[in-house]
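Propose amino acids for all 83 sites.
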């Protein structure tokens, strides 16, 4: 499968596995066993938006885009992305 196909197929599965809707894909790369994808999800909405709390999750995917496992690798404020 191509990169864009995997991304489109894996996002709904990532949402199901994390029980949270990914806001964006920060990285997607092919591995020996399938794919590795990093997504950002909104943990807590804040005012102003720059204080929203986001988590970054790394997901392991098989060659078809099915989620094999995931782990949280970072928590940050949305404003932290700017600098």
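Proposal:
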């Amino acid at each position: 499968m191509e990169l864009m196909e995997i991304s489109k197929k894996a996002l709904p599965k990532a949402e199901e596995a994390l029980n949270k809707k990914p806001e964006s894909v920060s990285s997607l790369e092919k591995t020996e066993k399938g794919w590795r994808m990093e997504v950002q999800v909104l943990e807590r909405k804040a005012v102003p938006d720059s204080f929203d709390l986001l988590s970054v999750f790394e997901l392991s995917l098989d060659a078809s885009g099915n989620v094999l496992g995931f782990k949280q690798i970072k928590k940050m404020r949305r404003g932290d992305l700017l600098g």
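The radius of gyration is 13 Å. The mean pLDDT is 91.
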